[in-house]
C-alpha cells in the first residue's frame, strides 16, 4: 500500500484530527509537514508491537515474562534500524530511556491482569481493511485484533495505551471502534457481535454491541465530516481551533493562533485528498 493510497482515504484518526483542529488536519494530511517523534507515540507503537507478536508464541508461553523480553528485543531492533531515534527521543539520557521502557512494562503487566492470552486464538492481528462505502468514500483502518469464536461470532479489540476517558468524553473512542465495525461489515459481510476497547493505563474495558442502525449512523457521521473537509479543501480555508491539545501540537511553529504565518496550502495535496470520494 503506497502513501498516495493512504492519503486518499479516511480513517478514524484522520477524522479525529479534523474534529480537534481543521488546520492541524491540513498540515498533517494535505501539506504533510514533518512531525517530531515523542516518547508517548513511540510507547504506543512498541506496546502494540509486543501484543501483536505475543500471539506468535505457543499458548503456554504467553506470559508477562515473554512479553517483557519482547519489549527489549523489539526496541533494540528499532534503534538498530533508526539510530537517530534514540537521540531524538531521549537526548542521550539513558535514565529517560529506562523510564520509557519501564512505562511500557507497566502497560503490558496491566494487560495480563485484563486478559488471559493463553486462552485466546486471534483470527487476525493488525488487520488492514480498505473499502469504499455507499457514499463513494474510501475508508481504511488497522484493527489491532479480531477474535472469532467457534460459532463464528466476531469480536473487534482495540488496545489503548492512555487512560480511559470520563464517560462524557467516550464519544471519539466509541466512534473509532464503530468505524472499525463498519469497515469490517462492509468488507466481510457480517456484523461484529462485540466491540472492545482495552485501556491499559488503568485497566479499564469498554464494551459495545453494535447494531445495523449503528452502521448506518456511522456512515452518516462520516459523510457529514467529509462534507466539511471537502468544502474546506476546495476553499483552502482550514481554520485553527484552540484547545488544551495545542500544547502538544507538532505544528505550533506554523499556527496563526501563536502568531505564525502558515505556509501555502499544497494544491497537489488538496487534489489527492478530494480523490477520497470516488466519482
Give an overview of the whole structure:
- With 279 residues, the protein is of the alpha+beta class.
- Helices cover 48% and strands 14% of the residues.
- It has ten helices and five strands.
- The protein has helices at residues 3-7, 12-20, 22-30, 39-54, 64-81, 84-90, 94-114, 171-188, 212-235, 267-274; strands at 124-132, 138-148, 154-160, 194-199, 204-208.
- It has a five-stranded mixed sheet.
- Mean pLDDT is 95; it is low at 1-5.
Please give the structural blueprint.
Elements: H1 3-7, H2 12-20, H3 22-30, H4 39-54, H5 64-81, H6 84-90, H7 94-114, E1 124-132, E2 138-148, E3 154-160, H8 171-188, E4 194-199, E5 204-208, H9 212-235, H10 267-274
Parallel strand pairs: 3-4
Antiparallel strand pairs: 1-2, 2-3, 4-5
Q: What's the alpha carbon Rg, rounded to whole Å?
A: 20 Å
Quantity of strands, as a count: 5
Shape: globular
Largest sheet: 5 strands, mixed
What is the succession of H and E elements?
Answer: HHHHHHHEEEHEEHH
Please report the distance between the alpha carbons of the first and last residues: 21 Å
Work out the helicity level.
Answer: 40-55%
Mean model confidence by pLDDT: 95
Low-confidence stretches: 1-5
Question: Order of strands in the sheet with the most strands?
Answer: 1-2-3-4-5
State the helix count: 10
Q: What share of the residues does DSSP label as strand, in percent?
A: 5-15%
Structural class: alpha+beta
Provide key terms for this protein.
alpha+beta, 14% strand, 5 strands, 10 helices
